[in-house]
Amino acid sequence: MQSKTFSLPMLHSEAQVRDIENRLRAIPGMKLVQGHPETKLFTIEWTEPASWDNVWKLLEGMGYTPDD
User: Fold this and answer.
1) pLDDT at 50
2) How many CA atoms lie within 13 A of 61 on its CB side?
3) pLDDT at 67
4) Which of 22, 25, 50, 60 is deepest in the core (most CB within 10 A)?
5) Is 37 helix (H, G, I), strand (E, B) or coil?
6) In angstroms, rounded to a whole number, what is the distance separating the alpha carbons of residues 37 and 14?
7) Is there a contact between 30 and 51 (Cβ–Cβ < 8 Å)?
8) According to CATH, what is the number of the domain 2-61?
9) How far is CA 66 from CA 6, 31, 45, in A?
10) pTM (whole model) above 0.85
C-alpha cells in the first residue's frame, strides 16, 4: 500500500473538501481518503490499480494543483 499527504491551499470551503474526498474515493484501489478543511491537508492510501498519477489527474481536472 502506498500513501501520501498533500495540501490544496486554494480550498475555501468544507464542501470543496467533501467533494474532493468523494471523487478520490471513487478511484478503484483507493483505501483511505481524509481531508481536513482547517489545514487543507489530505491524506490518502491506495493500492493498484490506483496511483498518484490518477489522483493528480483527477485533481488537475477539477482545477486543483496539489502542493506535496
Assistant:
1) 97
2) 9
3) 87
4) 50
5) coil
6) 5
7) no
8) 3.30.70.100
9) 6, 19, 16
10) yes
At 30 the pLDDT is 98
pLDDT, tens digit only, all 68 positions of the chain:
999 999 999 999 999 999 999 999 999 999 999 999 999 999 999 999 999 999 999 999 999 999 87
- Nearest alpha-carbon partner for 52 in 36, 41, 66: 66
In the chain, what are the domain boundaries? 2-61
Q: Which grid coordinates are listed for 43? A: 491524506
The predicted structure's pLDDT at residue 35: 96
DSSP string for residues in 2-29 = EEEEEE-TT---HHHHHHHHHHHHTSTT
Q: From CA 44, how far away is CA 53, in angstroms rounded? A: 13
**Cα-trace Rg, the chain:** 11
Query: CB of 8 within 8 A of CB of 66?
Result: yes
